């Protein structure tokens, strides 16, 4: 009988399959390095394996492999047996530097919260139910998150980390000179409102979120010297009126909710805005073909795992919802990385 199997040398390689399947190992190595403070210690003083291990309080068995894995992954460099941070690690992963606040809180949340939740992704896919703190409780995702002050602070600061680059771009890309007031809906720590007001001195605004977020928001606004132009409004999206402003922004917000709630938020935005006002939605938008922006599609799976009904969406879909809500003119623009904005104008 003729052998129809292709010779081994012509079979497709399984390298990419294995690399993706085991990617959690590299991820957890980095997250553990942030957790135990590797980069902060090396920012204070480079060290060899013995000194660094002792300063971090690590067991001798795995320390050398741990540090060298970070070298191989490109997060540390080793010269004559002495470990140093890379420029990237020095800028963003040293707890004493400003860049840490823009990146590391998200990494901390990934290690302490998301890593375990994603381990139950198969359950989420089978049941359609979230696997986060609200699992097996009579409360929704955000009730559970906001109930613990420490967990809330970590969550709000992590939202700054994942959004900061896009916030900087929005502060300059949107024609803010046409407006005088803005309200940032679901403001979290308030970084979007802060960056917009810092770049546009003629604007004033408010951040809208559940009342438990106010102390974290106020501290952040004070740190940036904006308390005279930036206030806080406590409330619930779905039961309280929206603030009155020329522009309403939703940064990484709509993906948290199911379709009907997405539409409710856009309709309430249209009702709250004056003629000529605008809604600015930004998110990790899925590309219209749903085949290229892997980060956005993975973020949508994250919404499956951590919310009760949230999902990602395309710019085309969001424009359709805006027009259904009453917005006359809509368009989509790329921001930075995987993020884009969708704008709707009430004419």
Main features:
2 domains; Arc Repressor Mutant, subunit A; Rossmann fold; 15% strand; 15 helices; alpha/beta; 10 strands
CATH class of the largest domain: Alpha Beta
Architecture (CATH level 2) name of the largest domain: 3-Layer(aba) Sandwich
How many distinct folded domains?
2
Which sequence of strands runs across the widest sheet?
Answer: 6-5-4-7-8-10-9
Helical coverage, percent range:
40-55%
**Strand-residue proportion:** 5-15%
Q: Quick one: biggest sheet?
A: 7 strands, mixed
Radius of gyration: 23 Å
Shape: globular
| Number of separate strands | 10
Span between N and C termini? 74 Å
Q: Helix and strand succession? A: HHHEHHEEHHHHHEHEHEEHEHHEE
Question: If you average the pLDDT, what whole number results?
Answer: 92
Work out the helix count: 15
Instruction: Give the CATH topology of the largest domain.
Output: Rossmann fold
The CATH homologous superfamily of the largest domain corresponds to: Vaccinia Virus protein VP39
- Poorly predicted runs are none
Q: Which class best fits the helix and strand makeup?
A: alpha/beta
The oligomeric state of the chains shown is single chain
Pfam families: Dimerisation (PF08100), Methyltransf_2 (PF00891)
Domain O-methyltransferase dimerisation: 19-93
Keywords: Methyltransferase, S-adenosyl-L-methionine, Transferase
Domain O-methyltransferase C-terminal: 118-327
